[in-house]
């Protein structure tokens, strides 16, 4: 039987897109406490089919698939631009396909507008009206209002008309940035994106005999299986090591490993990879908040996902890569040296290189050296900074890594940073190695 938390999630999932969600109303309808209702709504928001909009409330939205996660809903646009909704609240859950800047004659402007667009424009009432009639939402910049007739039209068509105090250029930049951040987020692969779902996962019950494990190994060519109870909640995992020395009539619950390490669906694959390497795990069960099994993650799934992520062009726009783009790699004899200049963006309020930037440079250089020795992915595990000295803006620095130790799963590097002949920073970087 489903728990109250699960019942509320199922109830929310069945609500029509665009429905308003109230903690008090759900508590009343399902006869649960407001605290239980609140926690379930927050869980639904985490899972992506509920959105909370300032001055509007919590709304049931369409859950985004991985392939279109870079698109924004109009509700999210309201939050991004600090706007307020003048009309068409019922359409806030809809997704915008593109935005159009209305900096042209009305006739020319309309050639670019179609259903699903968002028109960014000032106080041009006629443009507001025609855009709505063509199926586009409107974002009025400069903090301007619109007419009551247009607000009523927006309500009738369920197309949002939003007002923001920012100018058009700023609004366009904010939306562009949000879309690009989504694109990066799209390629930060989560466990839920690559796990083998429960429908495809063979499981054992605690009451099953060990003989069933032997049947499963022949049938599925696997040796590791999660163990669940009657409600599909994870209670253990059984592997070939657990089976050794036990009779085939023994019960699985007597030989299984209890309380196995698990993952949540909303954890990044990189984080799960670190756990699997550190703990020596080949199969990681994935459970929801109620310990209900939703699937499993294998070592091969993780490696394929990390290889795919590394090939995505937008991943070069993350902060570590942007920082390292200012450094060039040189070989001095048998040693690698990274040379770069401290740009204004790397400094703190005193005009010296920020400690976080210095630490990032040392961590990246250390991992790069390990990659040169082993064709593998690196997950930094520990950075011990011995000391840091102030480095002025526009100073040229040289970063020199030195390999201390490397094994099949672990590497250790000492990284020294020089400004001329002066040692200005030193750290030891330890990393887990994940073979490709």
TrEMBL record:
Residues 195-253, 256-317 form the CBS domain. Pfam families: CBS, DRTGG. It comes from the Bacteria. The keyword Oxidoreductase does not apply. Keywords: CBS domain. The keyword Protein transport does not apply. InterPro entries: CBS_dom, CBS_dom_sf, Diverse_CBS-Domain, DRTGG, HotDog_dom_sf, Ser_kin/Pase_Hpr-like_N_sf, WH-like_DNA-bd_sf, WH_DNA-bd_sf. PANTHER family: CBS DOMAIN-CONTAINING PROTEIN, CBS DOMAIN-CONTAINING PROTEIN CBSX3, MITOCHONDRIAL. This is DRTGG domain-containing protein.
